[in-house]
Design a protein that fits this description.
Helix content: 55-70%
Strand order of the largest sheet: 2-1-5-4-3
Radius of gyration: 39 Å
Structural class: alpha+beta
Number of helices: 20
Strand content: 5-15%
Low-confidence stretches: 603-608
Oligomer: single chain
Mean pLDDT: 80
């Protein structure tokens, strides 16, 4: 439970105790006997008891408040409670009558020691006052000792309350409790609970207040532990008092009944726990298997890539062996140093300014960097910097994955055909690796999604707010990863095993509009077309291009604006030019080339959904058709995408 809930409970306890004590004090002044003894012919709550209950309520209200005045008030009121009870106990020990018993009000109802609190009441107040002082110190050991004192108060008052419930005669009670009134017992019980709730995370109390499974089981058992003995006690006493059964048989009947009802109560609970435990074990086995796969994947990645993590300021937090091997630095020479230790001075400041702007905005940055080794030699790495973001939208850590591409750079500089062919082969193998890696990631991801759904169904309502937020975060993240992997698979497939077909663009666009019907209907988008010809090309990639551009035109519009999109085609000597214009939010000129890079996003996921792969798809489609793609922002708002398709294609191209 949250601490605010406990504070609310304590507040209501303070109010109830204060009102009750004031009512009893006025009852003494006005002679209203039913207020003094709620149960006729039973013990009365003395005026001094009511006064000390008022002091105790004030102490509880002031307890642990960060205010000097309230701190002093707490010490004064709890000190008065300890002083008055100690004074009264001394009068019992010395067998004397003191004026303090009837100082505030006379007592015409008591025969012995009029106005004096009972022994049980005195001891309870003394323990209560000492416990308040212990809690005020905020020292764990003293708080633990104070909790023990409060448990003693709870035991005394619980015995008193149950004796009233079982309607025992005063003569049948112990000397400590025979003169303790029912409302006195109840107020002691509430005050002890209230003080314990002031430090719910310490000692035995935490077993009732935290959200762990064992603690929840303890709370579930309370009805049996508390109410069943009382109910059975009432029944057995009734049978004994009416000579239906004898005392000895009544005890046997009580024991047997308690065992049977306890078993009936806990059996369904144990069945539910067994089911949960079985599901948990299955989940653990699956997670262990997935963790093994992920560890293997990480091991493979460590073997081929240079990996490091840095904090938000670029200070190195961790590096792998490959990082040390390539850079020439030892691990202890790198940890805590800024990543700029590898700066070769080759790149302009604007190069790194662009990098920091991109990753601080939450986007992945991918480029080639020329770094410097410890011995002064330089090397090229293809670098991907991945930001990890806080809920506030600020990065707290960056993961860098680098591949040494020095040889590739040498090949590019020398323009040696042999090197170029080898690089093309390597790129082909890397594409295959990307496809296989993305494909193989689907299985553990599906398992995680399946078991996160199971956790959501079985445990969501049993978790606290932090746990529920964490589970929602897992579900959202796995869903985004699922979409991202599918997009990567689609991206890696582009350009493979397609045959040139004769395509009716009018029909192709109509098919796309049918696929996007739900988005079009929900946004009331207006989509018009010009004269669309029949061309030669690759059907599925072209459909993907139209779907991405039309979907973006619908999605990236200002709030309260109806999307309007126009599709047209112009013919030149060698190319068909597909033109798609929209009235969206537009694209700043400085980003009009970058948006076609994979994983490049201009907006936060919370503003516009997507993976940053769609326009990279479009670029691949244009290149597949031996053409290009570009974008311009119109003067009156919106964007115009132009994609060229070569007229005369062949499967050999």
């Amino acid at each position: 439970m949250r601490k605010s809930v406990f504070n609310t409970i304590v507040f209501y306890i303070v109010i109830f105790v204060a009102i009750t004590s004031l009512t009893v004090m006025f009852g003494w002044f006005l002679g209203v006997r039913p207020v003094l003894e709620i149960i006729p012919s039973s013990a009365t709550m003395k005026f001094n008891s009511a006064l000390l209950f008022l002091f105790s309520a004030i102490s509880l209200f002031c307890l642990n408040k960060k205010n000097d005045v309230l701190f002093v008030l707490n010490i004064v009121t709890s000190g008065l409670v300890i002083f008055i009870t100690s004074y009264t106990l001394m009068s019992y020990i010395m067998e004397l009558r003191f004026d303090l018993d009837t100082f505030f009000s006379s007592d015409a109802y008591s025969i012995t020691f009029p106005g004096r609190m009972g022994l049980g009441t005195c001891y309870s107040f003394l323990l209560l006052g000492l416990a308040v002082i212990g809690f005020q110190t905020n020292r764990r050991r003293l708080i633990t000792i104070s909790q023990v004192l409060l448990v003693v108060v709870l035991l005394l008052t619980t015995v008193s309350i149950i004796s009233y419930i079982l309607n025992l005669n005063s003569s049948d009670k112990t000397t400590l409790l025979e003169s303790m009134a029912i409302h006195t017992s109840l107020l002691f019980f509430l005050l002890a609970i209230g003080i314990l709730l002031k430090q719910p995370e310490i000692g035995y109390v935490k077993y009732f207040t935290s959200n762990y499974a064992g603690n929840k089981l303890l709370l579930i058992s309370l009805p049996v532990v508390v109410f069943l003995p009382i109910i059975l006690g009432l029944i057995i006493l009734y049978l004994i008092n009416n000579d239906i059964v004898k005392v000895s048989f009544g005890i046997v009947l009580y024991c047997v009944s308690f065992i049977i009802f306890s078993l009936l109560y806990f059996t369904p609970i144990s069945v539910r726990i067994n089911r949960s435990d079985k599901s948990r074990r299955i989940l653990e086995d699956k997670l262990q298997a997935n963790n093994k796969e992920l560890k293997q994947f990480k091991t493979a990645l460590d073997e081929i890539a240079i990996i490091s993590t840095t904090d938000a300021h670029g200070n190195i937090k961790s590096v792998n062996k490959e990082f040390c091997k390539v850079s020439g630095y030892r691990k202890k020479e790198l940890i805590g140093k800024n990543i700029s230790i590898l700066n070769s001075g080759h790149h302009k400041p604007s190069f790194f300014q662009d990098m920091w702007k991109t990753i601080n905005d939450g986007s992945i940055w991918v480029k080639d960097i020329k770094n410097k080794k410890k011995n002064g030699e330089t090397f090229w790495v293809n670098t991907a910097v991945i930001p990890f973001m806080l809920k506030s939208g600020k990065p707290y850590e960056f993961l860098s994955i680098k591949i040494d591409v020095s040889e590739r750079k040498k090949a590019q500089n020398k323009l040696q055909s042999e090197y170029i062919k080898q690089l093309e082969k390597n790129n082909h193998e890397l594409e295959q690796f990307a496809y296989v890696a993305s494909h193989d990631l689907q299985e553990p991801l599906r398992t995680i999604m399946s078991f996160s759904d199971l956790l959501y169904q079985e445990y969501y309502n049993k978790l606290d707010t932090t746990g529920q937020d964490s589970l929602n975060f897992i579900k959202d993240s796995t869903q985004r990863m699922h979409v991202l992997i599918n997009d990567l698979l689609d991206y890696s497939r582009l350009g493979k095993e397609y045959e040139i077909e004769t395509i009716n663009l009018r029909q192709l666009v109509d098919d796309c509009l049918l696929d996007l019907k739900s988005k079009i209907d929900s946004t009331m988008a207006e989509i018009t077309t010009g004269n669309l010809p029949t061309i030669d090309g690759y059907s599925l990639p072209l459909k993907l291009l139209f779907q991405n551009l039309l979907s973006n035109g619908i999605k990236f519009v200002a709030p309260e604006v109806t999307p309007k999109i126009h599709v047209d085609v112009k013919e030149t000597k060698e190319f068909w030019e597909i033109i798609i214009s929209d009235n969206g939010i537009g694209i700043p000129k400085e980003h009009q080339k970058r948006i076609f890079d994979i994983f490049q996003r201009l907006h936060n996921k919370s503003d516009y959904e997507g993976t940053g792969i769609g326009l990279a798809h479009c670029l691949r489609v244009a290149q597949l058709h031996k053409g290009e793609i570009s974008v311009n922002t119109n003067l009156n708002g919106g964007s115009t995408f132009k994609t060229t398709i070569k007229k005369h294609l062949s499967n050999d191209n």
